[in-house]
Amino acid sequence: MAKSSFGIESLRKKSRARKSCSKLKCRTILLASFFAPAILTYFLLIRVSPLFRPTPLLFLSSQKGVDENFLSQLEGWLVGQQTNGKEDHSTPVSSIGTTNSSTPFTSRTSTPEILAPPVIGNKSKTWSHWPAVAYEEVDHALVYKGDTFISRMRESLLGPSSALDNTNTNDKTQTLLEEFLEVYGNRPDKINKCGILINHALALFFAVKQLKPTLVVESGVNAGQSTYFIRKASPDTKIWAVDPLEVPICDQGVRWVDPNEKTTYFVGDKFIDLNQFDWKQLSANGTIDVDSTLFFIDDHKEALSRIRKLSKAGAKHVIIEDNYKVGEGASFQDKRGYTPKQIFLHPERKIDAKWLFENMKTYAEFPPLVPPIMAKKAPFQRKPAGGFMVWQDKNEDIVAPILRPDLLDDDNKTFYDVAAKLELNPDMTDFYSYKQFMNYNQICYLELM
After folding, report:
1. What's the pTM value of the predicted model, to 2 decimals?
2. How many CB atoms lie within 10 A of CB 104?
3. What is the pLDDT of residue 18?
């Protein structure tokens, strides 16, 4: 009996041990199932793909009551985990940089590396620390052709303005960018709700300075802001201001009218559509020098028809102000797919794309002043019509910006100086500052054959 009892007791102990082991396994499985998603998330977000890194920050920043210092520390930790304390330039820094109004960016790489000229490959162009690739052929989101003055825009803007001309007599040591900021600060319409802002105004100002046209034909005047920038860039240039309306749209009040006698207005009852001018005849009879005329098109009409007309007349220099991407546009005409950027990529515009590419000598898109990441704190979403950059942009279809405040201390200081001079918030948390810096629509320059 004792032996039998002992055997039974032994079986009982084994049974209890098996139950205990089973409970331990269950606990292990439960713990594993609890921590596995966190571990997997950790590796996905931090160890595997830097592209996922902003995701938790986006989620947390959207929640009420989350402290900004905590978010900043969290992002700093994420960067540290990603790089293990080392610089990592394999991922476009423009997509992950951060800033705040009290602490400028810290340079993440050497100045010469970032400021190196674009690398020209086999029908392609790339920029240091910028994800976009421009192609010298159609069927791409970003296209270029040949070399233009735009490729030297940074050097020209940060150099003395007197190097381009002698129109700036106030200060020979003033840079061209400083001259522009002075002009921009004195613009007649500080809001310019439906007109050009910093990026496009700078592009137009710079183009007029570089090309020195004898005449600028401005198709689309509205409040007169672009007329103002053209005149300030060149006091001696003739301007033909063309617009069907006598007064501006968007409740912008009274149009700025250039007092210079070299400006002629074709507005209201005197309006003549750009395609209705006989440019060949005007060139033949000496009224205009078509070779030295710049056509600035900002009228939201079908751009390609205007380019074809000008090409037949022998025009050389054209700027398309609203160069919308495919599917974007502020008007029905904009969305039809006839801006250069739309034509080059639109699946139904291949014949037009071929004609346009073959009939222009050069093509380039002007860069924005700063990258979209500078608007990281701006609480504004992308507009369906386009025309604005947001910090989440992948930057694969726009050219590298003029300044890199996300990477370079000197550029960051310049950016803050620009914001201070124009009384704008560099964080862009207010819509006015955001609109000023982030309004950008791939404004482009074409040199026709």
Report:
1. 0.76
2. 17
3. 52
